[in-house]
Amino acid sequence: MATTRPVMALLLVAAAVLAGAGPARGFYLPGVAPADYRMKDPLAVKVNQLSSIKTQLPYSYYSLPFCKPGTIVDSAENLGEVLRGDRIENSLYVFEMMEPKLCQIVCKITPNQGEAQDLKEKIDDEYRINMILDNLPLVVPIKRLDQEAPTVYQQGVHIGVKGQYSGSKEEKHFIHNHFTFLVKYHKDANTDIARIVAFEVKPYSIKHEYDGDWKGNATPLKTCDPHSRRLVVDSDSPQEVEASKEIIFTYDVNFEESPIKWASRWDTYLLMADDQIHWFSIVNSLMIVLFLSGMVAMIMLRTLYRDISKYNQLEDQEDAQEETGWKLVHGDVFRPPVNADLLCVYVGTGVQFFGMLLVTLLFAILGLLSPSNRGGLMTAMLLLWVFMGLFAGYSSSRLYKMFKGSEWKNVTIKTALMFPGIVFAIFFVLNALIWGEKSSGAVPFTTMFALVLLWFGISVPLVFVGSYVGFKKPAMEDAVRTNKIPRAIPEQPWYMNPVVSVLIGGILPFGAVFIELFFILTSIWLHQFYYIFGFLFLVFVILILTCAEITIVLCYFQLCGEDYQWWWRSYLTAGSSALYLFLYATFYFFTKLEITKTVSGVLYFGYMLIASYAFFVLTGAIGFYACFWFTRLIYSSVKID
Question: What is the phi/psi pair of residue 403, to 5°?
Fold first, then answer.
């Protein structure tokens, strides 16, 4: 398995393929080299997991009584694929290039009571079969009612459907036992070489009939016979799922030449039909940014400029004190906060997460990971997280030294273990639940071991290296001297209460990203393609600006109220947007998803809790550094006696 091959994983990060703003046009970098086929070359179809948007629990294809080859061969998988629950195996569906075939028998099965019940349950839960040909996923084309609208593609084909016979009210389960595949290829004009550019299917349910004895794949079928021009074109006499009832699996395969070039073959899958909504999201977010930028500019140019000029010109300090309150706390503004070591840990973790996201998105918009690299994005993010430990250690120790702390090793250990430890504990519990459901989505012990090895073998040492370098550097000097005796903080108005201002501060950063968040959640939980990293990068930049500006504005109001305890407040102000993210995820669960199983619900909220926690440390660190820069700037600009 690829998880035990770090060299391959490193190559994946360095050269694996993420797509740009919308699908990139032209040749994708590494990932997958094009395969050339000639007439009658064998085409082996691979099967992937069975997936459902109702349960979110993937299962192996051969966990159901489908046609099995003599020997099942697992394809090598990278770390991301294993974590996604992908299980790629060989199948009995083997075509010949440019050779159409009709009514091909795959096999005949007779399910027992348990197998029939399994099939019915999977049909109830709307499980889909996922197949792969030449690294392209199998899709079902769905025409829109609007004839001019482009065709949309559903990933995977449903195992079956529920329905009723005419004149009956009893609901039955029918299996899709006949697939009509369409393989589209692009042919080179000068040679007979062709490349596959699409893999589509139309499923049917048909109760096959035959005369005489069963002769395996050579049995002539009465219901599907190309010689008598009897083909499967509808599901008028469907195949019911019942114990001890024969099910015959068949397929047709047709080939069609396409003008689409191999380099652009993913474009149709990744087609973004609702890009206007994304632009609306960007414009909406930019309005928030402009509003906040105006407020920050007003504070910086008008208020602060006037304040600083007066402070520097007036000899009578009492007059200056009457003017405004932020200078009054100059002797306390850089006083280390309570739980300073914990703040350093969370700031360091936020820097680590920020670095990981920034590099991932830069790789993405440069086209350095492609959708054909299943699991590539997750593998890249994991490895980048590990290597960004260097910056986490450096930033946490630098801050800790400024607070005049001496136990830098304790802070380093907490930085290396706290966030990953909490996430790993939640992940371990969720994985145990998936094991209990016998799902292929459960991460194997070997992969768990590989994750722990990445954590303790690479991430932890890098955090220590970063901390050592950061602590050895001279401490940052405070802009003003701190008094020995803390100043009393006057009573604050209700709207400057820490809880109120923190909760207000999280609304705007969340408001800047929530529309894009809808598409990300849809991609993850409704198994739709998401590859619009150009939009995502813009939203990320807007998030950074919004977090920074709202924190600066609220920090200024806080200092004007003579409240100098801004350290934790600045982190929590921006970080509280994670609370709104989790609340939105809860709203999304009850309005958009059809999850019915308790385990699936626990999985959803468990993973969204991890995502919200990560969003908290990311936005918190952005807000903290913005406020840190702001306070140092304004207090270094005034003359203090």
Answer: -80, 5
